[in-house]
Amino acid sequence: MTTRLPHSLRSDARDNRERILAVARTTFAERGLDVAMREIARRADVGPATLYRHFPTKEALVTEAFGEQMRACTSLVDEGLADPDPWRGFCLVVEKVCELHAQDRGFTAALVSAFPRAIDFAANREQAWGKFAELARRAKAAGGLRPDFVPDDLIMVLMANSGIRTTSPTAAVAASRRFAALLIQGMRTQPAIPPLPPPVRLPLTVVT
Amino acid sequence: MTTRLPHSLRSDARDNRERILAVARTTFAERGLDVAMREIARRADVGPATLYRHFPTKEALVTEAFGEQMRACTSLVDEGLADPDPWRGFCLVVEKVCELHAQDRGFTAALVSAFPRAIDFAANREQAWGKFAELARRAKAAGGLRPDFVPDDLIMVLMANSGIRTTSPTAAVAASRRFAALLIQGMRTQPAIPPLPPPVRLPLTVVT
User: Fold this and answer.
1) Whole-angstrom Cα distance, residue A54 to residue A20?
2) Contact at CB, B179 and A185, closer than 8 angstroms
3) CATH number of A67-206
4) 3-state secondary structure (DSSP) of residue A92
5) Does residue A204 contact residue B168 with C-beta atoms inside 8 Å?
6) Is the complex ipTM more than 0.90?
7) How many helices (H) and strands (E) does chain A have?
8) Crossing angle of helices A119-141/A86-102, nearest 10°?
9) Residues 6+ apart with CB under 8 A from A204
10) CATH number corresponding to B4-56
11) Which residue from B10, B53, B59 is spatially nearest to B205, judged by alpha carbons?
12) With a CB-CB cutoff of 8 Å, which residues 49-68 of chain B face chain A?
């Protein structure tokens, strides 16, 4: 029995950790990042001490909960950059990133949040962001993307995408496809392009 | 004194009513319609009994708080319909309605809510909706609006518009202008229009 206890404890701890992460993803998706840690603990059926042992801050919990989506985003941008036609690559990124976010609204909230201490998450985001800006530059040079597009417009599109409310995850993905397609048409170079109103600096939420 | 009391009471009641409505607008804008009536009463510094005397249900409060915006919406659609160029009228409505909603996110939540008992509010909405559908029909017939646009797309656009988060009301309006302009470009008939993915039925929230 004494040799078994540590093993069983480790296994319990792993179960707790996974359950906390699953609950956090669902709760953040439903209600944004403003949910109290106490509420996450309650829903995951663990004590606050257990929650804080695994995730000392909400920032740690958020970045761990959405690490996988962050990596998926980066891969999408890499895929777009690898397309020999930069405009086609750009469209792929806008479509697929909207789709990814439609499946998980909590992720949109996480992506547009500032994480002063979550070095890895912020670094991954910066990297994906730099690559997307490069893809946009190439898509403009190739003549597909309108010249007054700015990379921040993607943040605006993702915030907007997360505002679309539907009755099911399937409908959310379908709506995000239609939404992305409309926007992509608006982003295309057109025979006579009226200039867009100026871009607006969009804020990151500070998660403390 | 006895002749004054009723007057003063009426005046207090009117002040309370106005204060409740102002607080409700601000609170709904900040936090959506899910705020408890008790919370509205607390913020307006009145007792629950006073709140319920003025507004027996949350539905009554919501529809009264946003009655003015609803009338503004209807006027906008009338203005669009009056334009001899239906496509220009259509663009005006999309731009101005996005702007109106950017100034008041609570109104977007109210507009996409079902109000089973708020006959006037729902009737006004239906009327504005029918007129917008007519404007879209004319804008298609005139060749400006792409043929696969559906009036429900405006609901999608308004939900999306309300997801854009900015640092100030001025920035919210500026962002909504850029957003509306991108979408309008996407809604235009273009030399070669790739068909949009199919529209998605978007739900009304039931406010009880």
Assistant:
1) 9
2) no
3) 1.10.357.10
4) helix
5) no
6) no
7) 10, 2
8) 140
9) A112, A113, A114
10) 1.10.10.60
11) B59
12) none
CB contact under 8 A, A178 and B187: no
Query: pLDDT of B109-135, one tens digit each?
Result: 888 877 767 777 888 888 999 999 999
Angle A34-B111-B65 (CA atoms, 0-180°, nearest 5)? 85
Give the burial string for A19-54 (b: 16+ CB within 10 Å, else e): ebbebbbbbbbeebbebeeeebbebbebeeebbeeb
- Do B200 and A178 count as a contact with CB atoms less than 8 A apart? yes
**How much is the pLDDT for A8?**
59
- The span from the CA of B178 to the CA of B158, in Å, is 14
β pairing state of B113-114 and A113-114: unpaired
**Amino acid type, B148:** D
Distance between CA atoms of B95 and A151, rounded to whole angstroms? 22
Q: Among residues 87-146 of chain A, which lie with CB inside 8 Å of chain B?
A: 112
| Tens digits of residue pLDDT in A19-39 | 999 999 888 877 778 899 999
Task: Residue window 153-182, chain A: list those with CB within 8 Å of chain B.
Answer: 153, 156, 159-167, 171, 174-175, 177-179, 181-182
How many residues are listed for chain B in this entry?
208
Sequence ranges of chain B with CATH classification 1.10.10.60: 4-56
Determine whether the interchain pair B196/A174 forms a contact, defined as Cβ–Cβ distance below 8 Å.
Answer: no
